[in-house]
Amino acid sequence: MRTGVIIAGGYSTRFGEEDKAVASLAGTPLIRRVADRMTGAVDRLVVNCRPEQTAELRTALDGYDHPITIAEDTDCDEGPMSGIMTGLRAAETEYAFVAACDMPFLEPALIERLFERAGGHDAAVPRVGDGWFQPTYAVYRASAMADACEVALAEGSHKIIDPLFTLDYVVLGEDEVSEYASLDTFENINTPEELARAAEQLR
Ligand SMILES: Nc1nc2c(ncn2[C@@H]2O[C@H](COP(=O)(O)OP(=O)(O)OP(=O)(O)O)[C@@H](O)[C@H]2O)c(=O)[nH]1
Ligand SMILES: [Mg+2]
């Protein structure tokens, strides 16, 4: 059994007034597009958000066969690492794929590969280009990563990559990633302009 965790507790400040998680990407709420891209590779979903987002996100995610657990932040605005921790704590499977709510071009084949490569380790994470890790497009052993995030947060770190470095992790380099996905798969949406461009790509 595999869980897909979507992190959505951010404030979308670059996006503007609207919560980007529910902004319309070619007619579909962004988070629903992300869930659509995940459901082929996982059995259940966990969505991390702030309590005030829950109703709207549930509506945006209505109608899936996959069970969906909402994991609300108790400490809000603590950054993505805190969201990953909260989401992974709610996962009931050994391994979970984690993605941000603003990555509409997730590739199920690459998600599958990340699960395969994580087996027997604590994490599998892509690294493409100039050494950029993609910790919000990675598979984790849920309890190990949640514990590592808790330690990092307690130490005052908010750098999302810090907990990974304390784990037994496998890196998927650009060559391996490219066998499964185009590098656009890591694109994330921060502004209305980027959302409009993503809609163009989907036409
Ligand atoms: N739980 C939680 N998730 C967060 C937090 N900050 C960001 N995220 C999530 O982490 C992912 C990447 O973050 P950003 O692209 O910076 O999103 P954001 O913080 O909402 O947007 P900006 O305010 O424009 O930076 C998104 O899925 C966010 O929802 C936070 O403080 N708590
Ligand atoms: Mg942010």
Observed structural traits:
binds guanosine-5'-triphosphate, globular, 10 strands, Spore Coat Polysaccharide Biosynthesis Protein SpsA, Chain A, 8-stranded mixed β-sheet, 7 helices, 203 residues, two-stranded antiparallel ribbon
Outline of this structure?
Helix content is 34%, strand content 21%.
Which percent range fits the helix content? 25-40%
Integer-rounded radius of gyration: 16 Å
CATH superfamily: Spore Coat Polysaccharide Biosynthesis Protein SpsA, Chain A
CATH architecture: Alpha-Beta Complex
CATH fold-level name: Spore Coat Polysaccharide Biosynthesis Protein SpsA, Chain A
How far apart the termini lie comes to 34 Å
* Major sheet summary line: 8 strands, mixed
Categorize the overall geometry.
globular
H and E string: EEEHEHEHEHEEEHEHH
Number of strands: 10
Point out poorly predicted stretches. Answer: none
What share of the residues does DSSP label as strand, in percent?
A: 15-25%
| Helix-strand category | alpha/beta
| Mean pLDDT reading | 97
Question: What's the helix count?
Answer: 7
Q: Please give the domain count.
A: 1
CATH class, please?
Alpha Beta
**Cofactors and ligands:** guanosine-5'-triphosphate, magnesium ion
What order do the helices and strands come in, and which of them pair?
Elements: E1 3-7, E2 24-25, E3 28-29, H1 30-39, E4 44-49, H2 54-60, E5 68-72, H3 80-89, E6 95-100, H4 108-118, E7 123-128, E8 132-133, E9 137-141, H5 142-154, E10 169-172, H6 174-180, H7 192-202
Parallel strand pairs: 1-4, 1-6, 4-5, 7-10
Antiparallel strand pairs: 2-3, 6-9, 7-8, 7-9
Guanosine-5'-triphosphate (GTP) binds next to helix 3.
